[in-house]
Design a protein that fits this description.
Blueprint lengths: L1 E9 L2 H9 L4 E5 L13 H12 L4 E6 L8 H14 L3 E4 L14 E3 L8 H9 L4 E3 L6 H9 L4 E8 L11 H6 L16 E4 L5 E6 L6 E3 L4 H7 L3 E4 L6 H20 L4 E3 L21 E2 L21 E9 L4 E3 L10 E5 L5 E10 L2 E4 L10 E6 L1 H8 L7 E9 L3 E8 L4 E7 L3 E2 L3 H12 L7 E9 L4 E2 L2 H22 L18 E2 L8 H9 L4 E2 L15 E5 L3 H4 L20 E4 L4 E7 L4 E5 L1
Parallel strand pairs: 1-2, 1-11, 1-12, 2-3, 3-4, 4-5, 5-6, 6-7, 7-11, 10-13, 20-24, 26-27
Antiparallel strand pairs: 7-10, 8-9, 8-29, 14-15, 14-19, 16-17, 16-19, 17-18, 20-21, 21-22, 23-25, 28-31, 29-30, 30-31
Length: 610
């Protein structure tokens, strides 16, 4: 059967363990350096501990080394790769092709979304040079994913939830051009989340101080079945910088959705062991979000962006129906909690937020009444009650174990068989005293042996195979159960086998013999790699260019289009209904620079030129 993997972010050891506990089949985490989230690095010792914990559930740990590397960093990166392999990492997520020129341990390599896995020829090339998995570009549609899968044998990983990069990943130079902080070096300043003015060719301001490049967050929950049928086997939640409640809530939400799908499938199975029985109702709307879009999974549609704010709006809870001197009321009976964070879009199109000081008899007493008026939509971006519920939650993932309890010549034996088929037995001496109350004796055996406590196991069944009923002390049964579960945990650890793959150098031709700065070649090993694969003309990475050469360079390429978002696309929207007419060229303007917008309508792409 084909395994389906829920892949969740881990900012650190704690959040990694939480993701595993709440249902992740795998987590991805950054090492101390060279990850695309520079502020989410972790020591190798923590990654080693996370691997030990995850592997108990047959869950995997993938480590991100997905920045471009400079020549002086190669030796350190090489050493780190070997350390991570010895720590138990299951794969490395990489961007820099120079890594393939190194003497590597036999660890699978995944091509990060930073390698811009959008084009079929490029993906087939990556397969030919030894990459084990492709992390697909977020911009792909289900139809495009299906086509890729039909022509490759690689495992395909796709994002299903979280923040969207408006630019093609790995091809955004906006942050580096404006601040010197490179997204390809894990230091993105999120220039796309900043406000801009939109200026037309006559110098007229069309929109002022709007977040024109700030996309809503991705949510593909309604498309999981379609993605599975298209060939996706790993489903990725974004969020290595998010808090633990985000991890718990969204991991649990998608775990339930995937489990529901698997219940009706004979072709797919879960990629790891154990199950968490949730005592709360997961709801992605209650965690950080900028509103949701399914982006390009189906057809292109408007309202992908959040022009008002790049911050979390949360969940729409109602409209203001009444205001008083120091309170307001909503057109809903939804419970509001003291300490909730609410917000709304003000008359200038910006986000205004406030706290709930008191909720009483349907009246909300806010920390400020500024600009609150009848008819305004109110959102809840901090649900205090839900947050406290997650923080206090003690749900624990458990692996099912069946016990068979029998007698030996000098005592009793317990046999354990877990849900993955691991078997072992353990016996101990105990005087065999016939029971005066047989029913109670059997009840005691079952009761004591089912107490798995705070272990990773849940005793699903206790089978008693005795020639007669015995009186057996509870202390003996408890010791026997504890011993067998310790042994079972150790056996699971010993039996965990990592996939191993050795990358063999070859000379498969790259799809192009000329590459520009968007291929992100930043070191001599990467140059050697591309030369061996037939590239004859190579431009170095944008990060190596002098600032005097930035002018005229494309610093962002995106499938998202401002003209379409405004309803004025001449090709895909009805021109007769368009009330806004834009004279090109169009420019984005911030407080320091102007950026020309170029529209490649044939390819349906927008470019931002410095």
């Amino acid at each position: 059967m084909q395994e389906l993997e829920l892949l969740c972010p881990a900012k650190d050891l704690e959040s990694g363990k939480l993701a595993i506990n709440y249902g992740a089949d795998a987590v991805y985490i950054g090492a101390g350096k060279f990850g695309a989230r520079a502020s989410a690095g972790n020591p190798v010792s923590d990654i080693e501990e996370l691997c030990r914990s995850a592997h108990q559930f047959r869950a995997k740990v993938y480590v991100t080394l997905n920045t471009i590397l400079y020549d002086h960093e190669i030796a350190e990166a090489h050493s780190l790769i070997w350390e991570l392999y010895h720590a138990g990492a299951d794969s490395l997520i990489i961007q820099d092709m120079g890594i393939l020129e190194l003497d590597l341990p036999p660890i699978p390599l995944f091509a990060s979304t930073q390698t811009h896995n959008y084009d079929l020829k490029k993906i087939k090339f990556l397969e030919d040079v030894g990459i084990s998995r492709i992390i697909l570009a977020r911009e792909l549609s289900i139809a495009e994913i299906k086509k890729i899968k039909s022509q490759t044998h690689l495992g395909l990983e796709a994002f299903i939830h979280g923040a969207l990069c408006v630019s093609f990943s790995g091809q955004c130079y906006f942050s580096h051009a404006t601040t010197g902080r490179s997204a390809n070096r894990g230091e993105c300043a999120q220039a796309c989340r900043m406000p801009f003015d939109l200026i037309d060719g006559d110098g007229k301001t069309i929109l002022k101080n709007r977040h024109l490049l700030s996309l809503k967050d991705f949510q593909a929950s309604k498309h999981l079945a379609d993605l599975i049928e298209a060939g996706i086997t790993s489903f990725k939640i974004e969020g290595r910088l998010k808090d633990k409640n985000y991890i718990i809530n969204n991991t649990a939400y998608y775990r339930q959705l995937l489990d529901s799908y698997l219940l009706g499938s004979s072709s797919y199975c879960k990629a790891s062991s154990g199950k968490t029985h949730f005592s709360f109702a997961p709801d992605p709307d209650k965690s950080f979000n900028r509103g949701f879009t399914d982006y390009f999974l189906g057809q292109r549609k408007p309202e992908m962006a959040s022009f008002e704010t790049p911050k979390s709006k949360g969940k729409l809870i109602g409209k203001v129906k009444k205001t008083g001197k120091d309170f307001f009321m909503l057109d809903t009976d939804l419970e509001i909690n003291n300490g909730d964070g609410l917000c709304f879009i003000d008359k200038n199109g910006g986000l205004e937020g406030f706290n709930v000081n008191r909720f009483e008899n349907g009246k909300i007493y806010p920390s400020t009444m500024r600009e609150l008026s009848i008819g305004i939509n109110i959102y809840r971006n901090f649900d205090r009650k839900f947050s406290k519920e997650l923080e206090a939650n003690r749900d624990k993932r458990k692996i099912k174990v069946r016990f068979i309890f029998s007698e030996t010549r000098e005592g009793f034996l317990i046999k354990a068989i877990d849900e993955d088929g691991h078997e072992l037995s353990h016996s101990d001496f105990c005087e065999q005293i016939p029971a005066n109350k047989p029913d109670r004796a059997r009840e005691t055996i079952i009761t004591q042996l089912k107490k798995a406590g705070d272990t990773n196991f849940e005793i699903s069944e206790v089978e008693i195979d005795l020639s007669k009923d015995y009186f057996i002390p509870a202390s003996f049964l408890n010791n026997l159960r504890r011993s067998i579960l310790v042994l079972l945990e150790e056996k699971r650890r010993q039996n965990y086998k990592r996939e191993e793959r050795i990358v063999q150098s070859n000379e498969v031709p790259y799809p192009e013999d000329k590459i520009d700065h968007k291929t992100n070649v930043s070191n001599d090993l990467a140059k050697k790699f591309y030369a061996r694969h037939g590239v004859q003309n190579l431009e170095e990475a944008f990060e190596l260019l002098p600032k005097t050469e930035f002018a005229g360079k494309t610093i962002m390429t995106t499938r998202y289009c401002i003209k379409f978002e405004l309803g004025v696309c001449p090709h895909k929207q009805d021109a007769s209904t368009q009330s806004l007419h834009l004279k090109e060229p169009l420019f984005l303007h911030d407080k320091q620079h102007s950026y020309r917008l170029e529209f490649d309508c044939k390819a349906c792409l927008m470019k931002v030129v410095y």
